[in-house]
Every structure is written in C-alpha cells, then in structure tokens.
C-alpha cells in the first residue's frame, strides 16, 4: 500500500489558470493538471492507493467554502482520498471551525505560513495550533523556503522548535523534509522532537521550465546521500511519503523512496505504515 501524504488540487473551473500561474511563478514544470480527476489518474499511473489532499486558504473568506469542499470530497472519494481542512490566520472563528472539522471526521489541517504571510511561531498561529491540538487534529505546515517566494522564510526549523517548545509535543508534520532548502538546520533543531517530516518536493532536481530562470547548478535538491542523512537522524518511524503533486510526479517520487538503501520494513513505514498510524486507519 502507498499513501501520498502531500497532494494538491484546485476546483475544475480554475485549475488550469492556477497551475499555469503557479508554474510560471516558480518556473517549474507541473506533472498533473491540478484537477481531482487528474490526481486520480496520476495515482493510477503511479500505483498510489490513497492521497492526502492539503488545501490552502490564501484569504480568510475562503476557509469555510474550502472546508465544505473537503468534506464533500471525503464523502465521495473516501476510499482513495483523505482531504484535510484549512485555516487562515486572519479567520477569527477558528475554534468553532476546527471543532466542526473534527466533528465531521477531518483528520488534520494544512497551514502555509508563506502564502498566509504569518510566521508559524507568531501568537496567531500558536493559538490556532493549540486549538487544533485540543481537537486532536494533525497540523501539517509548509516548512522552509518556498520556491515561488525567493528568500522568504516564515517557517524555519528554529521557528518550528519554538512552536514545539510553546505547545508541547503534538501531531506535527513538517513538509519538504522539515524545511525546503533549510535542510542543514532540520536535525539541529528538530531531531530530538516527535515531529514528522514528509518527503515531498525534496529529492532529485527541480524540473525547470525552459525559460532560462533556473541555472542548472541551482536546481539540485536532496540527493540520495543528503536524504539518507535525514533518514538516519529521524528514523523511518517519523517519515511520511509525499509527492507535492502536481509539482512532482507521483510515480517518480515513489521510485526514489523504493531506491533508498534501507530495508523493506523501513520502506513500508515511509510509504504507508506511518501514515496509517497517524490517520488512524
């Protein structure tokens, strides 16, 4: 069984525009069309049994409608998709909304400090995370730099440590191996916590558009050796397979994990076992 813990889709009416716009902002090649049907097709091609959908609210006014869509997706596609909810730091009724999500079977929330223009260790996010913990919700955050916002860090490994020091241990998932292109800092601040890392958009090389923006020397992410340093630091029990579809190819992402120099039991934990435990499946 393979569970992809980090995927994204957009409503059919805006998917083409959204993927095109985000692709051009980051100067990267998309690997799916950003629709729900496109994700399901990608899953079939990549041998993915279940994908976790991670919606992001870029404005407080979007929160309830996005969460309503998440609930509908889980009702209709619950055998293949597990959609999380979203919260925006400017959304004032977050306590009530988090209770609603919990009461309707949502397993967690996705936050994106860069897109939402708020440091993860701010009081605003700390209040939201504390309320999520009260409802036993998983909190997954974009971590590190964002490819579309050069130089902007709203969720560094040190900031994540600040969150843990304030809140205590909770179901905390840090995307992109704990901090995209902050990887040297990840074990320094987080190795001795219980935080999970997801593997999304972290391995191999950035697949750049042919617009000249990316120099070949700048497209590298974690190679197998760099990836294995984090695997050894955190252990296979704290890693969750994720692709970041449509920004990475799901089949290629699974092939990378299967090719790591670890035993079959550890591979199984990363590809599905840890996700099953965290999701209570």
* Principal-axis shape: globular
Task: Output the number of helix runs.
Answer: 10
Amount of beta strand: 5-15%
- Termini distance? 12 Å
Biggest β-sheet, characterized? 6 strands, parallel
Low-confidence stretches: none
Q: Can you count the beta strands?
A: 9
Q: Please, what is the average pLDDT?
A: 97
Q: How much helicity do the residues have?
A: 40-55%
Structural class: alpha/beta
Strand order of the largest sheet: 4-5-6-7-8-9
Brief sketch in words of this structure:
The protein has ten helices and nine strands. It has about 280 residues and is of the alpha/beta class.
Question: Would you kindly provide a written description of the structure presented here, covering whatever features stand out?
Answer:
The chain is built from 10 helices and 9 strands. The chain is of the alpha/beta class. The strands form 2 sheets. The chain has a 6-stranded parallel β-sheet with strand order 4-5-6-7-8-9.
């Amino acid at each position: 069984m393979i569970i992809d813990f980090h995927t994204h889709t957009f409503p059919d009416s805006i998917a083409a525009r959204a993927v095109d716009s985000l692709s051009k902002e980051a100067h990267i090649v998309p690997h799916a069309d950003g629709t729900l049907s496109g994700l399901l097709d990608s899953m079939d091609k990549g041998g993915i049994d279940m994908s976790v959908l991670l919606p992001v609210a870029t404005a407080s006014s979007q929160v309830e409608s996005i969460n309503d869509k998440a609930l509908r997706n889980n009702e209709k596609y619950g055998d293949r998709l597990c959609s999380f909810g979203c919260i925006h730091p400017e959304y004032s009724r977050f306590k009530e909304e988090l209770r609603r999500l919990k009461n309707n079977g949502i397993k967690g929330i996705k936050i994106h400090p860069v897109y939402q223009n708020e440091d993860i260790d701010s009081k605003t996010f700390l209040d939201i995370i504390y309320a999520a913990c009260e409802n036993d919700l998983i909190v997954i955050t974009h971590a590190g730099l964002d490819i579309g916002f050069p130089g902007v860090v709203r969720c560094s490994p040190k900031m994540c440590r600040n969150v843990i020091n304030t809140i205590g241990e909770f179901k905390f998932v840090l995307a992109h191996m704990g901090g995209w292109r902050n990887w040297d800092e990840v074990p320094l601040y987080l190795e001795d916590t219980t935080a999970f890392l997801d593997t999304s958009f972290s391995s191999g090389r950035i697949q750049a558009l042919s617009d000249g923006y990316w120099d070949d020397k700048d497209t590298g992410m974690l190679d197998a050796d760099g990836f294995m340093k984090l695997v050894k630091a955190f252990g296979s029990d704290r890693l969750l397979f994720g692709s970041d579809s449509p920004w990475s190819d799901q089949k290629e992402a699974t092939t990378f994990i299967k090719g790591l120099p670890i035993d079959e039991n550890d591979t199984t934990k990363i590809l599905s076992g840890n996700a099953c435990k965290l999701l209570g499946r």
